[in-house]
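Recall the central idea of this unit: under ordinary conditions, the amino acid sequence of a chain determines the structure it adopts. In this exercise we apply that idea directly, starting from the sequence alone.
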Amino acid sequence: MTQTGLTGKKRLYWVLMIFAALLLALVVRLFYIQIIQGPRLQEMALSQWTKDTALSAARGRIVDRSGTVLAQSGTAYKVLLWPNVIGADDRGRIAQELAAVLDMDQETVLAKVVDVKKQEIVLKRQVERSVVDDILALKLGRGVGIAVDAKRYYP
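Accordingly, the structure predicted from this sequence is:
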């Protein structure tokens, strides 16, 4: 009987040692992930977060009782900037060319182009198609974009 009790204690001792080793490995792995890799993983997570973007709803026509259109929606465009994508050496040139095409103050445009704290900036809304064509002809790169916007017409 003493023989069986002794092997049972040894068996229990080894099982506890295995669990302790697994617990220690788990603690070491958590330390590695939280402390050593923490800043890099946090940076990766921040780049994958979603962002809020305002979407304008499609508005319908307004007609009087005889069917005459009083107000209707049309297509316009908005000019967007992504300052993080624009290279530091291209910012002045892009601000100068956009200010000329959009008929805006160059200093105002430059202040928005260099504001890298923001992901996306709406530079101007309700821009006509001819202005959009002029901007696209300049080939300013990936930091400048065009999005569809709605404009209200009152015939």
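The chain has a mean pLDDT of 86.
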